[in-house]
Structure formats: C-alpha cells, structure tokens
Predict the structure.
Amino acid sequence: EVQLVESGGGLVQPGRSLRLSCAASGFTFDDYAMHWVRQAPGKGLEWVSGISWNSGSIGYADSVKGRFTISRDNAKNSLYLQMNSLRAEDTALYYCAKDGDRGSWGSSWFDPWGQGTLVTVSS
Amino acid sequence: EIVLTQSPGTLSLSPGERATLSCRASQSVSSSYLAWYQQKPGQAPRLLIYGASSRATGIPDRFSGSGSGTDFTLTISRLEPEDFAVYYCQQYGSSPQTFGGGTKVEIK
C-alpha cells in the first residue's frame, strides 16, 4: 500500500523558517515526481512545488518562489520542503502528493496524497 | 497560468439524484490533462478521474468525466450518501498545475 506521511508542521512566527518532511513507502520512490500542495483553512487547493524523480526538474508557484526550496533524498524515500521567510498567508495544511504517472514530469495527476501537516504562521 | 472556474459553487441534491459538475478553463487544456478529486471533511483529496475521462483505481462507475478543450464535466449518475463532499478539478497540462475553486455537493 502506498503511504505518504508528512511531518514538521507547527506554529511559527512571521519571518522564521520551517522544514517539512514526507516519508514515502509502498512504491519505488525514485520512479516518480513528487509535489507539495497546500490548503489554507476553509479554502481550496494550491500547488506549491514539485520535483522530478532525479531532482533534475523543479518548479514553484510564484507565491513561494525564492522563499521555499523543495528537495528529495531517494536513498531515504523522503521529500522535503524548506520554507523560509514565512508569512501569515503561508498558513495552511501542506500535503505531499505523488505523481500519478511513473517517470513523468509536469504532466500528471496526483495520486495518492498524504494526510497533511499543518503550518500556522502567527506572532 | 490557466484559471479553472467550477460551477456551481454548491449543489444541493438528494441521494439517488444525478449530479453534474462543471469545470471551465481560461485556455484550452492540452491533451485533456484534466483530473477530478473528491475531498471529505478532515480528509486528503482522493483522485477520481484523470485524463478527463479515465476512472482511477477503485472508483465506482457511477463517477464519469467528460469534456475537452476548455469545458469539462464530472457526472455522478446516482448519488450515494458517501458522495456528499467537495469536488475539485485540476489541470496538469500547463505549468503551473492549477485547481478549480471546488464544488460542494450537499444533501438537500
């Protein structure tokens, strides 16, 4: 069974940093691109960032470009999101999601999703 | 970026009725790279449809997707009690991937 388990969320002050992790199991991790998607409280879904299977291709939403950094460690079956200069508007549940299509980049649906880790940015 | 507009915002229906959800794109979605997700309260989104009309593994055949270009539809032929949820469309043919604002299907 494919499992994605996020961790690292919490309450952080504006301007500070946080690092999210996603532990993957049940599939060949280095065959798939991976993504972070967030959902502000009571709001819709927003793609944040994605990384190809070999880290050769990376993308960011304009809202986080220059502040967030995505990375992965295929030896540890793990995905990361380093979030710097956090703002109140970054408050959201952050989901880790697997690309639906093996070997693709930027042209696949997301399946499955983890349960999310909550990031709250507030003083 | 491609903006996806979902309508209606809320759909009030009874179990057994047919639900028709719309997703309209601001530009043509290449190769029908359009997916639909279901989200229940406190849960992560679940993939229902990809490629505009292909059902994901384990999804009942009462869910169907159609459309191309800029107009896409998710149809639930007969609503079951577990189908009342929020539904999102997503385009993944153009960077950045974008989601619609969601349609809530509620019990009438």
Summary: Chain B has a mean pLDDT of 97. Chain B touches chain A at residues 31, 33, 35, 37, 43-47, 50-51, 56, 88, 90, 92-93, 95-102 (CB under 8 Å).
